[in-house]
Write a structure and sequence with these properties.
- About 40% of the residues lie in helices and about 15% in strands.
- It has a seven-stranded parallel sheet, with helices on both faces.
- Helix 7 links the parallel strand 8 (about 190-195) and strand 9 (about 225-230).
- The longest helix is centred in the N-terminal third of the chain and has 19 residues, at about 20-40.
- The two termini are about 45 Å apart.
- It binds pyridoxal-5'-phosphate.
């Protein structure tokens, strides 16, 4: 590969500790990269730069701007190089502070705030200016940026490969491997390790240093951090004579030549190594892998996602798209949350899974305790299942077993609302909307359920009692055969993104009580704050007999669902065996109560409760409502509505999902329209500017008639 053709690349440089030799290595690497470019590309179009996102210990400089000591050293290392455009700055510091201390303290003293995401954006803007950019962190991996974030958060937000500088001395194996563990725990890729010497050799230490090098070479290679170079101690770097200094830098640079070449070839901003080329991957996918509701081959157009952080997803080509979908309601807290990753890796390291038959464990017990404490009053028992659909299956079976135990085995049917969506397995499908659901395809296997009118009374209008009359009558008439009524409280999701009046739900609860029908609340989409209440049932101040949770339960990290039931239901099912009855609930998935999933869910629930989710959801509701309002007057648009962190534009006719999605990706947003709705339910942490980009893109799509 000719370096001249290289796109913008770079790596983040961190050390095992403060004073591990990072700045010297960065400076010498900068020289090595430029020399390599000069040699291999006589046209001299290859540029390398070094940047210091946060520089502390600055002195006032000549022009009254603070002079950054590390930037001085980078420039010093380039002395004597005959670069084509010598005046061009090849080193800079982005945020400078006077005190020589940790970034968080220095910023605090200056009355300023450092933010990992903002720093990463500033770094990215710099990276475009050269073919290869070295980004030198401050101190080691866990050095704080502010009260919450540290250097690892900056590295994760940047998502560049990381080069670890190790000072080769007593204790360095421990420090280096702990740092590699911390980097791996955040999903950071390795550029490599460079071993250096920051103090003069002492007699008798050769064996120790050689052993350090051998151990780190082996363990580093295993972890994707090969040792790229071992540097000697060079006191001449600080010699009084500038010729001696120049010679020392040239020598160091020569020792880093191979490392520089390796980094140019292997460090890209995207995950490329070991994986298929982008087009091969997409071709294999198109020919062999099913996607949701899609033909097998050729499959639909898809994009390759390589990482995600905060409210954004990164695509293979380096583009970031603002996520409007929370990955189908799940990633409500945003992606790559350190506390969720920590919960996952800690549990994975201890006990990813054991069977739940005959065994229990802390993650399941703690999560169950939390869920019952948060859920509407009266729910008392928890059944853990694998996915939303399976939790609906379990809920249906519970309702049937309840009535068998209660001596009314004739109550076997379910009532559901038109416009509902409850999942894709057979029991769940049977209670989905009979028209937009898949009933005509599977009529041979689906039980016939009872469908009630879709609640016509809007969330944002006065309740119209007449709208409930028909439903009430039907429920009372059919009660003898009805085991349960299943509803999505207040917000009907995938079946049309419809928001109905809480009074309707309150009356459903009352009629179910009077007529002897269990009420199942499917809170899989609405649970955990999405509608502005922790659970949407709270809008009507009701408690269901059975409640299904899923989706955001694990903060979008993995699949898990839970079915919560009242004492009455659980007790009846569990009553000692009567004629032909098991006295037990007859369901037990292999991965029931998965410790891994429960540990992550516990962390996700804690993170949600510790966050200002109510303010975020209220803020997003205002933003989405205002941002989408201009769509109201566009021909072909039937309705515009927002509730909680959900914004919807409903059209007269189904839209072309693929065409619109393609348009949205080009606008830098991830929105997947469905049927007659173009909707967003972004992560709660989505900043205002990103929420506005979502709504602006939707408005633009409609203004251009993409929906027609
Ligand atoms: C997504 C969803 C389901 C199904 O959950 P899966 O995890 O996809 O099986 C059920 N009910 C509602 C309301 C949903 O939004």
């Amino acid at each position: 590969m000719s370096p001249a053709s290289a796109a913008s690349r770079g790596c983040f440089i961190t050390g095992t500790d403060t004073d591990a030799g990072k700045t010297t290595v960065t400076a010498a690497l900068l020289r090595a990269l430029l020399e390599y470019g000069l040699e291999s590309d006589p046209a001299n179009s290859f540029e390398a730069r070094a940047i210091k996102p946060v520089q502390t210990g600055c002195e006032p400089g000549e022009d009254a701007n603070p002079a950054a000591p590390d930037v001085k050293r980078y420039s010093e290392a380039l002395r004597g190089l005959s670069l084509p455009d010598a005046a061009q700055p090849r080193a800079s510091a982005l945020r400078c502070f006077r005190p020589a201390c940790s970034p968080h303290l220095a910023a605090q003293a200056a009355g300023e705030h450092l933010d990992a995401r903002e720093l990463a954006l500033a770094c990215r803007a710099e990276v475009c200016k050269a073919n290869f950019t070295l980004i030198e962190g401050a101190g080691g991996a866990h050095v704080p940026l502010n009260d919450e974030e540290d250097m690892l958060d900056l590295m994760a937000a940047l998502d560049f490969p990381v080069l670890l500088v190790v000072s080769n001395k007593l204790g360095c194996i421990n420090h280096a491997l702990l740092t590699l563990d911390a980097l791996a725990a955040r999903g950071l890729r390795g550029a490599g390790m460079i071993l250096c010497r920051t103090v003069p050799d002492r007699a008798g230490e050769e064996i120790l240093r050689a052993d350090n090098a051998a151990v780190l070479a082996r363990k580093g290679a295993e972890r994707g951090f090969p040792v790229l170079a071992e540097l000697p101690f060079l006191p001449d770097l600080d010699a009084p004579s500038s010729e001696e200094r120049e010679r020392a830098w040239a020598r160091l640079s020569a020792l880093l030549r191979d490392a520089a070449r390796h980094m140019i070839c292997s460090c890209s901003g995207e995950i490329a190594k070991q994986s298929l080329a982008a087009d091969e991957l997409l071709a294999f996918d198109r020919d062999h892998i099913w996607h949701p509701y899609a033909p097998a081959a050729p499959g639909p157009k898809v994009w390759e996602a390589v990482s995600a952080a905060g409210a954004r997803i990164r695509l293979r080509d380096g583009r970031e798209v603002v996520d409007g979908m929370s990955s189908w309601w799940c990633a409500a807290l945003g992606y790559r949350r350190p506390e969720l990753i920590r919960a996952l890796t800690e549990q994975a390291a201890r006990m990813p899974h054991v069977m739940f038959g005959g065994l229990t464990h802390q993650p399941a017990v703690t999560l169950a305790e939390k869920l019952l404490a948060l859920a509407p009053a009266g729910l008392n028992n928890v059944f853990f299942a694998d996915s939303g659909s399976i939790s609906v299956e379990a809920a249906i079976k519970m309702a049937l077993q309840y009535w068998q135990a209660a001596g009314k085995p004739g109550k076997t049917r379910l009532a559901a609302l038109r416009g509902a969506y409850h999942g894709d397995t057979c029991g769940a499908m049977s209670v989905c909307d009979p028209v937009t659901g898949m009933h005509h395809l599977f009529s041979g296997i689906l039980p016939r359920q009872l469908f009630l009118e879709r609640p016509s009374c809007r969330f944002d209008q006065a309740f119209e009692p007449a709208s409930f009359a028909q439903t009430e009558q039907t429920l009372r008439r059919e009660a003898a055969t009805l085991a349960a009524l299943i509803v999505e409280p207040v917000v009907q999701g995938a079946g049309g993104m419809w928001f109905y009046h809480p009074e309707y739900l309150r009356r459903l609860r009352a009629v179910c009580d009077e007529a002897g029908i269990l009420l199942i609340a499917d809170e899989i989409a609405t649970g955990f704050g999405r509608t502005g209440k922790l659970f949407a049932s709270e809008w009507a101040e009701i408690s269901p007999d059975i409640m299904c949770l899923g989706k955001a339960l694990t903060g979008g990290t993995m699949t898990l669902s839970a079915v919560l039931t009242s004492h009455r239901v659980a007790d009846a099912i569990s009553r000692p065996k009567a004629e032909g009855l098991p006295g037990a609930f007859m369901h037990g998935p292999t991965f029931m109560g998965s410790p891994l999933a429960c540990a992550v869910a516990r962390a996700a629930v804690d993170a949600l409760l510790a966050s200002a989710w109510q303010e975020h959801v209220a803020r997003l509701e205002r933003r989405l409502a205002e941002g989408l309002a201009p769509c109201r007057n566009i021909p072909g648009v039937r309705d515009v509505r927002a509730l909680g962190a959900i914004g919807v534009v409903e059209t007269e006719h189904p839209v072309n999902t693929e065409k619109m999605q393609d348009f949205f990706v080009r606008q830098g947003v991830w929105i997947r329209p469905f049927n007659r709705t173009v909707y967003v339910m972004p992560p709660f942490i989505t900043p205002d500017a990103d929420a506005d980009l979502l709504t602006r893109s939707i408005c633009l799509a409609f203004a251009q008639g993409m929906h027609l």
